[in-house]
């Protein structure tokens, strides 16, 4: 079992001390920054937008994993590329022409991710899986940090892993929502490659130790 990629979610950081929290991730064993962009339409919450991401990128020294929880994400692909996103993940449920969106993300020089809401079956990706660099399996309903993990996620990860293997794809599996040291090993055993963690990292007394525990 190889070590998972750990992606702390900035949504749970202290926005009045953002540079401090970014430096903590820079110096920690975390691998990626996970950035949650919400529009108040696709999800019932608004997080932060371009000016904040621009300033995060100035200080962050690791891979930028940007998760768009917005309708019609095609409008902003070029913008996020120019801001420094390395992975741009769009929601399956927000894209009418998913294949076209994936090509546009790659043409803009980024890796392309697709997020699935808890009710969305992995089999819907059958025809595009070879075009996807990362599938983000939502283990909570998107929109808020600090929610509890939906247990069905492990079975879903196993199904997705089987699909990726059968299709000979190189797609990474990411889990987003309610990840803690209690479910991390089980998720990695089921086939997860990337673990996003917000509250578990930032609400713990020692965030760097929390990141190590997830590894
Ligand atoms: C939820 C976001 C998550 C969130 C995870 O909509 O996509 O990335 O920040 O937070 P925790 O780890 O607290 O569930
Ligand atoms: Zn996220």
TrEMBL record:
Gene3D superfamilies: Aldolase class I (3.20.20.70). InterPro entries: Aldolase_TIM, Ribul_P_3_epim, Ribul_P_3_epim-like, RibuloseP-bd_barrel. One of its GO terms (cellular component) is cytoplasm. Pfam families: Ribul_P_3_epim. Binds 1 divalent metal cation per subunit. Pathway: Carbohydrate degradation. Its cofactor is Zn(2+); Co(2+); Mn(2+); Fe(2+). PANTHER family: RIBULOSE-5-PHOSPHATE-3-EPIMERASE (PTHR11749). This is Ribulose-phosphate 3-epimerase. It comes from Dokdonia sinensis. The gene is rpe.
